[in-house]
Amino acid sequence: MTGTTAALALLGVALLGVGTVYGAARALRSTSEPLPAGPFESGVEPSEHAVSRFHVRWYTITMLFLAFDMEMVFMYPWTRVISAMGPGAVTEMFVFLAVLVAGVLYAWREGALRWT
Amino acid sequence: MDLTAGALRAVAARPHVLLVATPGGTAARLAAERRLRLDDLPLARTPAEADILLVAGPDRPGLRPAVDRLWQHLPAPRARAHAATPDAIGPALERCRTDLTRPSRVDAGHSSDGDGNGNGNHEGHKGHGDHHDHGGMEMPAGLPMAGTGPDRDGLELDQLHIALGPFLIDWPTGPTVRLTLQGDVIQRAELEEPGEQLGDGGDVPFWAEPWARAAEGERIGIGQAARRRAAAQLDSLGRLLAVAGWAGEATTARRLRDDLLDGAPGAALRPGVRRFARRVGRSRTLYWLTRGLGPLAGSRARAAGVGGPAARADGDVPARYRTWLADVVRDVDRLAETAPLPADEEGPRGRPAGGEWPSAALARLLPDLLEGAELAAARLIVASLDPDPDELAAAARGVTARD
Amino acid sequence: MTETASWWSLPAAPALLLTGAVLAVAGDALLAARDAGRPRTVAAAVRPLLEVVRLLAAQPRRMPAPDRLLWRSGVVTVPVAAVLSVLVVPFGHRAVADLSVGVVWFNAMEVLTWAGLWLAGWGPNAAFSLIGGYRFVAQGLAYELPLMFALISAATGAQSLRVGEIAEAQQGLWFAVWMPVAFVVYLAGVLAFSFLGPFGYPVGRDIASGVLGETSGVDRLLLQAGRWLWLTSGAAMAVPLFLGGGAGPGLPAWAWSALKTLLVLALLVWVLRRLPVLRADRYVELAWVVLVPLSILQALVPALVVLNR
């Protein structure tokens, strides 16, 4: 098996499993008529739809995260070529990381890592 | 063998129980919690998860519509029962489990207190807005979309309105705090007093009983009151630790509480209580997670009419749970004292003042402490003050004499 | 010499994963029984499995105006991604496919749970559920980077992204011994992407189970199974990454793999009940200010060692 074939086959097996579980529920459950239910809000009627533009107060952290995440894209292939590239590769990578960490410390000092 | 019948038996073997303790029902709640713990029947947190709806405590007409709404949202197979007294819990659960195995009548209802309110009015799933599915683009399912409001930074952002209480796991049943949230930060909190909708004032609160009886002239030993107070504070600690998500120690607190109420001798309890107090009190993780939450200066607490551990702690959530722990350790050392209860001994939540039980003042403090807090922090703050629903519902009679 | 196994590994790998997850659930049930003062018997250990039948027998529920498609895809993503992650995890010397980018594959599958759990929180159109979904994203922002640096530390030590080669590179000394920070951070990451125990923030008791709150029946079963499958998969991956894979005296390689996996799994299950939930509003700060710099320094150690080899 090549990697792609194996991955697709395993996906097939997993989806087959999920399908079997849904099928089993169809056979086992006492009634298939769905129960008209509502969201649980501590026993109180909801006053509006929950889906909304949720105000994530940690949005500044997502910016920091993206910076590091892009860096990871370089770091995975970098692991394979350290010996080949020599000390330069290590220096460059960790200087780059140090710059990013300096950014994190600045954000921390500015209070970006707390939101309450 | 019929497949479905076998499946129903499996459901009845380990059903999840949605436990609703009505105000005044502490004794029944304690019996139910012990029973569920020993029989390994998990507590459900929402109707979606539950198979059995068990109402423990006296019938409160004001809460009936809300209980019925919970029941409507339980998927079949399901069963419900009402147990007014601790003794009724066991039989009620047994009947529910039998009902679960019956495929024909999955909507079984029971009322073990004989007034028949468990049955009947939950037929016909008249949900909320399910009939308005064709209500047009603006009001899908008959509900408006979230509106916007100014943020603390002056931005116009979506607001969500949710309620904590009346029914929420590890929440004092009854009081409802209505929250306006932006993201998961609370902008505004309003306390809805359960007030007269609960019906009559009810009996003396379970936890404050020894003090009330002493006030009426009965001879109560220090040990007897200390036992009740330690159990009450372990109950509060169990709730706080459960809200904090510390499953192991929350269970320990509740086991120790049940052992105390069973009348276990002090010598047998002491090592366990001390180990528990050491683990929780010295936990750096719990301290780091809760420090700075809900600061309440002693002077501000007393000005609001709060006495007891919340005022003595004079600080944030860790200060309050450490005060409870110290109280519990001290009380467990005094279980054998038989001298009569002195008049200046305070109950688990302080002394009644101004004609009301101490929990009323605790509940009034909540909105101020919750505004600006994150939702999880708000739950911890409420659990660290832990107003007693029994005290909120009960009339402050018989105790004012001791002021 | 990890080799790609033949077709029979396709059903065998998920089956082994499921077995591990069942053992983890049973172990957790025994610990819960001990805490609650119930007898610790075989019956107590297998009782939680009744949950499978209970959930299969449940009536479906219909929420007002749910986002059915996104809800269902989120729910299915979590367990399916867990199964896909074991593609690259060797059992002894055999993996379903020892990809040249195995570590990245595992990482990618784990990140799929971000989408899955957020969608599962969004779908039912319920406030607590929605808050739970966003909680997982906040938690992800905290645990993900230290976890990635931990994975990279192991990959750097072996100068390979192939999981089999990483296991072989530990012939002399386990990475767990000379990269302890990476090992611990990795284990914390496993708990976090399984959203269990101290990282159960998105399904917290304080918000009435959050993402799980409105799920019932098969959907709930799949999400719950996904958590324990992920815990098992994470424990199994720890073995080739940090504990020398199938290497060991006396026993065959597959037995060592199984034994080490179960030990890591036991450790993780034990931790579940021993810590309070680490709320993201506190954990984010710790993760960025302490764990990220520490795990970067940890990644520097194997880089320097490899240079001087």
UniProtKB/TrEMBL annotation, chain A:
Chief location category: membrane
Source superkingdom: Bacteria
Name this polypeptide is given: NADH-quinone oxidoreductase subunit
Bilayer topology: Multi-pass membrane protein
Physiological role: NDH-1 shuttles electrons from NADH, via FMN and iron-sulfur (Fe-S) centers, to quinones in the respiratory chain.
Similarity comment: Belongs to the complex I subunit 3 family.
UniProt keyword annotation of Amino-acid biosynthesis present: no
Entry keywords, A to Z: Cell membrane, Membrane, NAD, Quinone, Translocase, Transmembrane, Transmembrane helix, Transport
Keyword Transmembrane helix attributed: yes
Parts of the chain that traverse the membrane: 58-78, 90-108
Listed InterPro entries: NADH_UbQ/plastoQ_OxRdtase_su3, NDAH_ubi_oxred_su3_sf
Catalytic activity, as annotated: a quinone + NADH + 5 H(+)(in) = a quinol + NAD(+) + 4 H(+)(out)
Organism, scientific name: Streptomyces smyrnaeus
Cell compartments where the protein resides: Cell membrane; Membrane
EC number per UniProt: 7.1.1.-
Automatic annotation (TrEMBL), chain B:
Superkingdom, natural source: Bacteria
Region (Disordered): 100-152
Biased composition (Basic and acidic residues): 100-113, 122-136
Protein name according to UniProt: Uncharacterized protein
Protein's organism: Streptomyces smyrnaeus
Automatic annotation (TrEMBL), chain C:
Keyword Disulfide bond: no
InterPro entries according to UniProt: NADH_UbQ_OxRdtase_su1/FPO
Superkingdom of origin organism: Bacteria
Membrane topology, record value: Multi-pass membrane protein
Keyword Transmembrane helix among record annotations: yes
Keywords annotated in UniProt: Membrane, NAD, Transmembrane, Transmembrane helix
Compartments where found: Cell membrane; Membrane
Matching Pfam families: NADHdh
Spans through the membrane: 12-31, 69-91, 111-134, 141-161, 173-196, 228-247, 253-272, 284-307
Family: Belongs to the complex I subunit 1 family.
Full protein name: NADH-quinone oxidoreductase subunit H
Originating species: Streptomyces smyrnaeus
